[in-house]
Design a protein that fits this description.
heterodimer; A: 217 residues; alpha/beta; Rossmann fold; seven-stranded parallel beta sheet; 7 helices; 7 strands; globular; B: 237 residues; six-stranded parallel beta sheet; two-stranded antiparallel ribbon; endoplasmic reticulum (chain A); N-acetylglucosaminyldiphosphodolichol N-acetylglucosaminyltransferase activity (chain A)
Chain lengths: 217, 237
């Protein structure tokens, strides 16, 4: 019985490892999208400067290819969703093409104690999972702070489990000149993003797998 | 160096403008204290009405005070607080340095900070000083300014650079993860702005030379969007 369980575990682990390697290797390859159907897009908004950069990017993207669009911002950040609403020209929570605006709990506020942050982190993860199950986006666009990490991690697990294959694009904030942010570094090291852009050439030299094609601002 | 407009330039300007009275006047600033605005001492008012937008105006008829009148310095700390900047800006040395550079008005957006600057109506010939906490239309204040002194947030920096206003960025050294100085220092190296710390701000103002500024060319998001499209198999154009 013990032998059977251990063999079973080894097999499962091997399958998962192979699947993870497969997912990572496939993620960096371009997609053959023959149907050209619109892709549901999740936009993770940061605060102030991050949001401005994201809006600049969205404003040059084809709205009909990336639809519907779901905007997520931290629950403590009212400005970002407001800016997204202005950008979309939508005043309430739902747009005509199904675009939506949502808030997500943050795992840790600035200055919060570490003991209570265990609870809030679990809450934030649960909330992110719930939103991701509901949305199951094809495309995830993010450019910044911690809010996008649980989202991207869940998206990656969905990919491994075969629930939903989503394409993750990360644009490092223009404020990062010499080093990647913690979010950027995690996505880079764990190969979770399909493409990771940086906005300064000297940063690209340090992280050769990142791409530099100019600044957003 | 910024100096008060010299008299012969003034004359030229006056001659030109006397023919084009309908055009907005570029040297006239747009802020005028409203007599009806509510008292503003608590520092808790979200949308300050202390300063109100007023259309540029013409005062002709041999009165050339008008042209030398207003050069506004706008100080912004963004959505948080940055008391060490507000304290520094409100100090006599900095105010004197700004006066010497020809600035006449100082408007401070102080955010959530607890340090309240001293208001002054400039009767003794010093800077006119006023402040507010937050405003929904920072852009109007930036537009009216001849010099912007800002915290190092990328939002404020690029909004100011886009308006091609001279900018001094003051890095907040109290922040734990101080990556913000990276951006300010990089842009200062490229001569798009001046970078300072609260303790060096006065020196930076004294040695301010606006002729060295290289205008900032805005970035372009199209290459990133194209690569995303290409990756997803959408036509690249």
């Amino acid at each position: 019985m013990v032998e059977f369980v251990s063999i079973f575990l080894v097999v499962i682990t091997t399958i998962i490892v192979i699947r993870v390697v497969y997912v990572i290797s496939q993620s960096s390859k371009p997609v053959r999208n023959t149907s050209q159907k619109p892709l549901s897009t999740l936009v993770v908004l940061g605060s102030g400067g991050h949001t401005a950069e994201m809006i600049n990017l969205l404003s040059v993207m084809q709205k009909d290819w990336f639809a519907p669009r779901y905007y997520i911002a931290a629950a403590t950040d009212n400005m970002s969703l407001q800016k997204a609403r202005v950008f979309e020209g939508i005043l309430d929570d739902k747009g005509a093409d199904g675009s939506q605006f949502m808030q997500i709990y943050r795992s840790r506020e600035v200055g919060q104690s570490y003991i209570t942050s265990v609870g809030t982190t679990l809450l934030a993860l649960g909330h992110a999972l719930w939103l991701m199950v509901k949305i199951r986006p094809h495309v995830i666009l993010c450019n910044g702070p911690g809010t996008c990490i649980p989202i991207c991690a869940i998206a990656f697990i969905f990919k491994v489990l075969g629930i939903r294959w989503s394409y993750i694009f990360y644009v490092e904030s223009i404020a990062r000149v010499k080093r990647l942010s913690l979010s950027g570094l995690l996505l880079y090291k764990l190969h979770m993003a399909d493409q990771l852009f940086v906005q300064w050439p000297q940063l690209q030299k340090q992280y050769p797998q990142a791409r530099y094609v100019g600044r957003l601002m | 160096m910024f100096k008060p407009i010299s008299s012969h330039r003034l004359t030229n300007l006056r001659i030109n403008y006397s023919f084009y009275q309908a055009l907005p006047c570029p040297t006239c600033t747009i802020y005028n204290r409203s007599k009806n605005s509510p008292a503003h001492d608590t520092g808790n008012v979200l949308y300050s009405q202390f300063w109100q937008w007023k259309a540029p105006c013409y005062k002709m008829g041999g009165n050339n005070n008008h042209f030398e009148s207003k050069k506004v310095v706008f100080v912004t700390v963004g959505t948080t607080s940055f008391d060490s900047l507000v304290t520094t800006v409100d100090s006599d040395q900095v105010k004197e340095a700004l006066s010497e550079q020809g600035y006449t008005h100082l408007v401070i957006q102080m955010g959530r900070g607890s340090f309240i600057p001293k208001k002054s109506n400039g009767e003794d010939g010093s800077l006119v000083v006023d402040y507010f906490t937050f405003s929904s239309s920072i852009a109007n204040y930036l537009q009216s300014a001849s010099l912007v002194i800002s915290h190092a947030g990328s939002g404020s920096i690029f909004e100011t650079l886009r308006m091609a206003k001279p900018l001094i960025v003051v890095v907040n050294e109290d922040l734990m993860d101080n990556h913000q100085s990276e951006l300010a220092e990089e842009l200062a190296e490229r001569k798009h702005l001046f970078c300072a710390r609260p303790q060096t701000l006065c020196e930076v103002i004294k040695s301010l030379n606006l002729d060295t500024i290289v205008p900032y060319a805005p970035g372009d998001a199209n290459p990133v969007a194209k690569l995303i499209n290409k990756h997803l198999g959408f036509p690249a154009d």
